[in-house]
Amino acid sequence: MLVNNAAFQQHQKSIADVSDEQFEKTFRTNIFGYFFMAKAALEHLGAGGAIVNTGSITGLEGSKELLDYSATKGAIHAFTKSLAQQLVERKIRVNCVSPGPIWTPLNVADKEPEKVAEHGADTPMKRPGQPEEVAPAYVFFASDADSSYISGEILTLLGGETRAA
After folding, report:
1. Looking at domain 2-157, what is its CATH homologous superfamily?
2. pTM of the model
3. Is 138 among the catalytic positions?
C-alpha cells in the first residue's frame, strides 16, 4: 500500500505574489511527488493493493489565497480517478482523502496569529478537524476487507459541511 501525503502551501494575496520558485516548488512537491511515488510503488503492489492520495477541499472549490496549492490538489483528484481507471484490472484500488481545515502545522504555518485562532471556525462544527479524526479514512481505503469495491473516489472530510461532491 502507498499513502501519498506530502504537501507544500504558501498563502499569497495575489497571483502576482506567487513567485516562479514557489509555483515550481508547490507542483514538484504536491503532484510530481505523488506521480513518481505511485509509479515506483506499482512494482511492489499486487491484487488487493491500494494507493491513497491526500487531496484537499481546495482542489474541488479553489482558494483565492492558495492558487498554486489548489491547482495541485485538483490535479491530485484527477490523477486519482485516472490512475484508478488504469489499475482496476490489476485489482489495485486508488482513492483520495480530501479534507477541509485540519489542525496541522502545514495549515497554520504562514498565518497570522488571529487567523490561526479562527482556523476551522467556518465549518458547521465550528472547529478544525484533528489528525486522529482523519486517520480512519486512510485505514478504510487501505483495507481490502472494507473497501474492496471502492476505487477512484474522493472522500471529503469537512466538519459537517456538505457543499463539495
Report:
1. NAD(P)-binding Rossmann-like Domain (3.40.50.720)
2. 0.86
3. no
